[in-house]
C-alpha cells in the first residue's frame, strides 16, 4: 500500500504553527528581568494539575512511543506491557524517595546539588556528569524520532526535520526555562492523550480489526504470541525493572519537577502521572504488535520508522495531521525538559556551587543557562545525524544510572555514607558494567558463575530498595534477602546468557556492596539538617550577602 504524505507546505504549516503557539505561550509567562531560581524550579509552588500533566508529558516522549512499538514488534504481545508497565512504575517509585529529598532540601535545584551539600564535589560531579550524558542522549533520541517522522510523512529530509524541530524547541524553552516547559507540557499532554484514544483504534480497524489476530498469527513465533514470553522478560522486562529505580533516582528531568511541585502535592502528582504514562505508552506500543501480525517490514530496515509508517499507510490526511502533531508534541515535551535539566545542572552544579561559590550572580547564571541550551542543542543535532537505535539508547542510559542508585538513596537516609564510599562504589560499578555490557569480558566458566552470583545480589538490592521506599528499612531488608534466596538457585549458570540484564544487575550489586562495606565502620555522622542551609535559593543568598 502506498504511503500517505502531508506535502511540504502542510508539513511546514503544522510545524511553524505548533512551535509558534508554544513560543507565544512562553512569552506570556516570561519576564524581562528573569529570576534564576524560577528559571530552574518554577518557584517550588506548581500545583497538582499542571505538575501531573507535565510529568506525564515529559515521559510520554516520541522516543518512548517508538521504543514501545519496537518492543511490540520485536517481542510480540508482551513487549509493550513490559516497556510501559515498568516505565510507569519508575514514576511511581519517585514519590516515597522524593518526599524524603524535598524534606531535606525544599529549595534545591538539582539532585547533584544536594549531593554536594551531603558529600562534596566529586559525588556531585559524578551525578551531574551522568545526567549530562543522559539528557544529551534523550535529546538526541527525540531529534531522531522527529526527523524520522518528518522524512516519512513529507518530502522534507531527515536533516531538515531535525533542524526545524531543534530550532522550534530551543526557541520557546530558551526564554523561561522550566516554567515554559511545564506550561506547554500541560497543553501538549491534553492533545496527546486525546490523539492516542482516536489514532490507535483507527489504525487497528483500518488494518483489519480483530480478524488480524487470526489471519496474521503465522507471522509470530509461539514466544511472541505469549503474554508470559521469557524472551520479552529477560531482554526487555527485566532490564527495565532494573532501570526503574535508576531513572527515578538519577534523572534530573524528574528531579526538576519534584522540586517544582508543591510539597504536599508530590504523592497525587506522581500517582496520576503513573497511570497516564502506562496507559498511553502501552497503547501506542500495540502498534508494533499490529505491524508484527501484518508482517510489515520497517521502511528502510529501521524500526524507528514503524509508527509513522503505519500511520502513513492507514490514516487519511486529517487523522495524519493529528498523528503528526501528537508525535511532535510528545518529543517537544521531553526535549524541552532535557534542555531545562541541562541548563540547571550547568547553572547550579558547575557555576553556582563550584566556580562561584558564595559569589554566584543570578544574572550571570541565566546567561549560562541559556548558552547551555544552545550548545546542548547543537551537540544533540550532531549525534542525531547518526540515527542510533532509540531502544538501545534508552536501555543503556538506565543501566548506567543503575550504578548510582544505591549510593544516592543511602546518602539521603544513612548518616555514615562518606564521599569516598560514594565515589569508589559508583566508579567500580561502572568499571564492571561497561566490559560486561559490551562483551569485553567473556562470561564463561568460573567468570560466568561469579557474575551470576553477584548479579543475584543485584536482584536483592533492587527488590529491597523498592520495598524500603514504601515500607521502611526492616521490610526492605526482608524483601531483599528473600529475593536473593529465591533467585540464586535459578540464576547461577543461567543469568549470564543475557548480558544486558547481567550488566545492570552487576552495577547495582557492586555499588551496594562497596558502599556498605566502606561506610559501615565509618566514624562519620552527618547532620542532615545542614543540607537545607546549603541548597537555598540563589537570589536569597545574594540578597543576604
Automatic annotation (TrEMBL):
The keyword Manganese does not apply. This is Sodium:proline symporter. It comes from Agaricicola taiwanensis. Pfam families: SSF. It is found in: Cell membrane. GO terms for cellular component: plasma membrane. Keywords: Cell membrane, Ion transport, Membrane, Sodium, Sodium transport, Symport, Transmembrane, Transmembrane helix, Transport. The keyword Transit peptide does not apply. The chain crosses the membrane at residues 6-25, 46-69, 81-98, 125-150, 156-174, 186-207, 227-249, 270-294, 314-335, 364-384, 390-414, 421-441, 447-468, 475-495, 501-520. Signal peptide: none annotated. Belongs to the sodium:solute symporter (SSF) (TC 2.A.21) family. Its main location: membrane. One of its GO terms (molecular function) is symporter activity. It is a multi-pass membrane protein. It comes from the Bacteria. InterPro entries: Na/Glc_symporter_sf (IPR038377), Na/solute_symporter (IPR001734), Sodium:Solute_Symporter (IPR050277). It catalyses: L-proline(in) + Na(+)(in) = L-proline(out) + Na(+)(out). GO terms for biological process: sodium ion transport.
Amino acid at each position: 500500500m502506498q504511503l500517505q504524505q502531508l506535502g511540504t507546505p502542510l508539513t511546514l504549516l503544522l510545524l511553524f504553527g505548533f512551535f509558534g503557539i508554544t513560543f507565544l505561550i512562553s512569552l506570556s509567562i516570561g519576564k524581562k528581568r528573569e529570576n534564576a531560581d524560577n528559571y530552574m524550579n518554577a518557584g517550588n509552588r506548581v500545583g497538582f494539575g499542571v505538575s501531573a500533566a507535565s510529568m506525564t508529558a515529559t515521559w510520554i516522549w516520541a522516543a518512548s512511543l517508538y521504543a514501545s512499538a519496537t518492543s511490540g514488534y520485536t517481542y510480540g504481545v508482551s513487549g509493550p506491557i513490559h516497556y510501559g508497565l515498568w516505565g510507569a512504575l519508575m514514576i511511581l517509585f519517585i514519590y516515597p524517595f522524593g518526599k524524603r529529598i524535598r524534606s531535606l532540601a525544599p529549595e534545591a535545584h538539582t539532585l547533584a546539588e544536594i549531593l554536594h551539600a551531603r558529600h562534596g564535589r566529586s559525588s556531585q560531579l559524578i551525578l551531574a556528569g551522568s545526567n549530562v550524558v543522559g539528557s544529551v542522549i534523550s535529546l538526541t533520541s527525540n531529534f531522531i524520532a522527529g526527523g524520522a517522522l518528518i522524512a516519512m510523512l513529507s518530502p522534507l529530509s531527515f536533516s531538515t526535520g531535525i533542524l526545524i524541530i531543534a530550532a522550534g524547541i530551543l526557541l520557546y524553552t530558551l526564554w523561561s526555562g522550566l516554567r515554559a516547559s511545564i506550561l506547554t507540557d500541560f497543553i501538549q499532554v491534553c492533545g496527546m492523550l486525546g490523539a492516542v484514544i482516536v489514532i490507535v483504534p483507527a489504525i487497528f480497524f483500518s488494518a483489519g480489526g480483530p480478524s488480524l489476530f487470526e489471519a496474521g498469527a503465522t507471522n509470530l513465533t509461539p514466544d511472541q504470541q505469549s503474554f508470559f514470553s521469557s524472551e520479552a522478560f529477560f531482554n526487555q522486562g527485566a532490564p527495565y525493572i532494573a532501570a526503574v529505580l535508576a531513572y527515578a533516582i538519577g534523572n534530573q528531568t524528574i528531579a526538576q519537577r519534584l522540586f517544582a511541585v508543591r510539597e504536599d502535592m508530590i504523592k497525587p502528582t506522581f500517582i496520576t502521572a503513573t497511570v497516564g504514562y502506562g496507559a498511553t505508552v502501552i497503547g501506542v506500543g500495540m502498534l508494533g504488535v499490529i505491524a508484527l501480525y501484518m508482517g510489515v517490514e520497517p521502511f528502510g530496515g529501521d524500526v524507528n520508522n514503524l509508527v509513522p509508517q503505519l500511520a502513513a499507510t492507514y490514516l487519511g490526511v486529517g487523522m495524519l495531521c493529528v498523528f503528526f502533531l501528537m508525535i511532535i508534541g510528545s518529543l517537544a515535551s521531553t526535549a524541552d525538559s532535557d534542555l531545562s535539566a541541562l541548563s540547571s545542572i550547568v547553572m547550579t552544579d558547575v557555576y553556582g556551587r563550584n566556580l562561584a561559590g558564595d559569589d554566584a550572580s543570578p544574572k550571570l547564571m541565566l546567561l549560562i543557562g541559556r548558552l547551555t541550551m544552545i550548545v546542548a542543542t547543537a551537540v544533540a543535532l550532531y549525534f542525531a545525524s547518526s540515527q542510533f537505535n532509540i531502544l538501545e539508547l534508552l536501555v543503556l542510559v538506565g543501566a548506567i544510572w543503575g550504578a548510582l542508585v544505591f549510593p544516592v538513596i543511602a546518602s539521603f537516609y544513612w548518616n555514615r555514607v562518606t564521599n569516598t564510599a560514594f565515589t569508589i562504589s559508583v566508579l567500580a560499578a561502572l568499571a564492571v558494567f561497561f566490559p560486561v555490557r559490551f562483551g569485553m569480558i567473556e562470561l564463561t566458566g568460573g567468570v560466568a558463575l561469579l557474575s551470576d552470583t553477584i548479579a543475584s545480589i543485584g536482584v536483592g538490592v533492587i527488590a529491597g530498595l523498592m520495598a524500603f521506599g514504601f515500607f521502611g528499612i526492616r521490610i526492605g531488608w526482608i524483601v531483599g534477602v528473600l529475593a536473593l534466596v529465591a533467585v540464586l538457585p535459578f540464576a547461577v549458570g543461567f543469568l549470564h546468557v543475557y548480558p544486558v540484564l547481567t550488566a545492570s544487575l552487576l552495577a547495582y550489586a557492586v555499588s551496594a556492596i562497596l558502599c556498605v562495606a566502606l561506610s559501615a565502620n565509618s566514624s562519620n555522622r552527618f547532620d542532615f539538617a545542614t543540607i537545607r542551609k546549603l541548597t537555598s535559593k540563589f537570589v536569597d543568598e545574594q540578597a543576604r550577602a
